[in-house]
Each structure stands twice: as structure tokens, then as C-alpha cells.
Amino acid sequence: MSNNLEYKNPLQIRIAEPHEVPGELIIHLNYAAKKPSPGSPGKRVGDILIIKTALGSHEIIVSLGEQEKCTSDTFRQAGGSLARWLKKSGAVTADIHHIEFDKFPIEDAFSAFCEGLLLGTFEFNRYKSKDSSTADVTVRVFCKDETALVVQTIQKATILTNAVNLEREWAHEPGSVINPVTLAERAQILAQKYALKCTILDEKVLSEMKAGGILAVGQGSKTPPRMIILEYPGKNPQEKPIVLIGKAITFDTGGYSLKNTASIQGMKYDKCGGLTVIAILQAVAVLQLPIPLVGIIAAAENMISADSYRPDDIITTLSGKTIEIITTDAEGRLLLSDALTYAQKTYHPRAMIDMATLTGGVITALGRVRAGIMSNNRELAARLVEAGEKTFEKLWQLPLDEEYLESIKGDEADLKNAGTPGEASTITGGIFLKQFVDDHCPWAHLDIAGVADTPKETPLSPKGATGFGIRLLIKYFESLSDE
Ligand code: BES
Ligand code: ZN
Ligand code: ZN
After folding, report:
1. Closest C-alpha among 332, 272, 306 to residue 467
2. Which of 19, 41, 297, 341 has the most CB atoms around its CB within 10 Å?
3. What is this structure's pTM?
């Protein structure tokens, strides 16, 4: 398994060597003309126009859409569309000469373009019996000056997108392949490769600890739950770490509160929060960022069996707080509550950020454009939102007023795991988690249920996992190092 754990990108970007001469295909990026005219590309970002030159080579003109609407993300989208086109065309190399563009600095436009190129080719075809993979493509960059900056930009984009594509690759694996136990094994192998410390808490340890939340969710499955802990030391071992916590339900049937045929589909993606955390630690280790980081991945499979937990059960979480189970389908908050308690007890974190495909309600509220963020700390939330605007992995803050707590106060236990149906379920999830966080510890909860996977292909991703949150969190960490 260790050989094909990571996605091998069929597209590479590199600087052309001094002796190399441009080849058959030359890449240009152009705004769409106000009126259709020869040589100007279509109106939609990513539209491609091919022009044969007098010398017999071809120019590929990639549309950036209307000039007034162009942002750095336009370059990412254009890169993604171009990558798909290159792969389909069977091209082996394509060359780019002009990496400076209009008012955009290289750091913004070119890095986004590289990210788009490296994300746009992702495909999950491991289980196709006919090999549908095409030849590798190399995009060569002919640059006259600022070579160091260009090299650095390509390297950084490669590191980030490798992490994103790793998340996608694992996310696409079905529940029959990735379960809590095999996920822990994979994490261990990955950790070794990237010199991360990895600790696995198995069901025995979890039960000695009395982590009743994660145990309840996992008890109906043949494969028992795991708490996977990855540690990256940073540059100063004295510094308190930021702890990232991820929900990794390797398959969410809903349990006895069973999902229906339509809503159960795609529930292999209920592990995306946890996978995002794994991928972030991988990227941070490669980038050698200065801050210490811990990733806690709470992994369980929410299944039906004679051993499953049931509605009306009362469970005791690691914190000691008791919870009345209203629905076995609101399982994410149960295992996250244990992870939050464990994080604070063990690491006294500088901040905690959890990522989870927690509620369908966030899709109703924000669709598939923005993830929801809820937080007990203004500065942490503001920084994350800002990092989202910069990376175009956008967030929108939802409130956590105390009034929302009312609906999840327990009748026979401290809390209930769900509030009033149809009322602010995303916020209810957030306020539930907040009960397990010390007010002095800055904490943010990202509900990524709407953005972790896409129901239809986009320029950056086929249908399925997107890898949302990885570029965003790295940008946030960098904003801390800039201080
Ligand atoms: N994994 C789901 C949330 C989800 C829904 C993710 C759709 C992606 C797409 C979660 O465990 C869940 O079922 N949540 C319930 C909570 C409710 C019962 C309080 C929901 O959102 O319906
Ligand atoms: Zn779930
Ligand atoms: Zn559920």
C-alpha cells in the first residue's frame, strides 16, 4: 500500500533549461474581448482558442473572462481548465513565456495558475479496469528574470496541491477500503515518510480513557474506532501547539436513524474533515513551517448492527458530560466532543480548529460556495475568514448566541445531540461543540459539509472530493508566522 498512498500527478510544471527551445504548444492567457474578434478567446474563464502560427506551432489562448472581473482565482480556474484540455489533447509538453500579468503580482497570479494546473488534472481511476490514464504532461516555464521567485512559486504550488490531491485520493476510497483501522494504518505510514509523530488510540485505550462519544458512534461497526494523533514539532518546542481536529466518519449510514437512499449516497465523504487534517500536516511538514501543530483525527464508522448505539441511549463523554441521543445521525459532534476534550487535556493548545462535514443545514444556508465558521474568538475567526478570501476557500461566519443552547439542553442528561428539526442545525452543531471548549481557549469550528465534495465537476475538480480547507489553513498559519 505504501507505494500508491499518494496521488501521482500526471502534470508537472518546471522551469525550462537554458538550452531548451520552445516546442509545439505555446500557452497564452488573455482577457475576453468586449466584442468577439479573431484571436481573442471566449467570454467564459477557461475557454480555449487554438491558433496555428506561421511557424507551424500552436498557440493555446486561455480566456481570463472579462478584465473587470478578473481576480487571482481567475488564474486558478484558467489553469484548471487548461490542465484538463492538455490532458485530453494528449500533449506532452506545453510552454509558457509570459508569467507576469497585468496588475497581478507573480505571487498571486502565477501561483494561482500553477495551483489550477496541478489540481485540474486530478482523477480517481484506480478501480477502472481499462487503464484510462493518459501520458504525462510537462508545462515548461521560459522565464527571463526573477527565476528564483518563479521556482519558489512552482515548488510551493506543487507542495500544496500534492496535499490537496492526497486528501482527494483518500476521500474517494469507499468505506470498504478505508475504515477507521485502515485509515490509522495509512496515517502511520504517511507520518513515517514525513517525520511526523503518530499515535493511535485504539478502542481499548479509548475505553480505558472513557471516551464514550467516539466509542458510542463506532460500536456498531466491525472495524472499531480510532483516534489518530499526528504531531509536528515546529521550530520552538516550548511553544504551545495549534491543534487541528477532524471528523473522519469513514461511512455515515445515519445508524438506526437511517439515512434514505438519496442522502446516504456520498457518505464516504464524511471523513473529509479528518483527511483534511492529515493532508495539512503533510504539507506543513514539507514546508517546514515554524509553528508546532497537532492533528487529531477522530475516526469511526456509523453503522447498524446488534451492537450499535440507539436513539434514547444516554452516553458519557470523555469530558464527563452526559448526552441523550436524539438521533444516531448526529454522530460527528459526539466524537468531536471527545477529541476537543482530549486536545485541551493533553496539549493546552494556543488555539483549536475543528473541521467537519457536520450538518446538511450548512448546505441549505451557504450552498456549495462557502463553508460555515463558528468561533468563540473574534481574532481567530477574522484571520481564518481573511485566509479564506485570499485562497478563495471562502468562509462565512455564523453566530453562537447562548440562546441557541436552549434547544439542546437535555431532559434526562446534560445535553441532547440534536435540537429542534429545521431550526439552525448548523449553529446547533456549533453550540454543542462549544460546550466542550474552555472559554479561554480560542476555538473555531468549520462546517465543510457543503464544500468538501462537489456534486458536479468544476475546473479544479471532478465530481467528488475537493480538498477544501488545506490551502486555507496553510495561509492562516503563514499569517501567524508573518507577525
Ligand atoms: N454527515 C452528516 C452531515 C452531512 C449531510 C454531510 C449532507 C454532507 C452532506 C451528519 O452526520 C448528519 O447526518 N447530520 C445531521 C444532523 C441532524 C440530525 C441534527 C443533518 O445534518 O441532517
Ligand atoms: Zn456524519
Ligand atoms: Zn450523520
Report:
1. 272
2. 297
3. 0.97
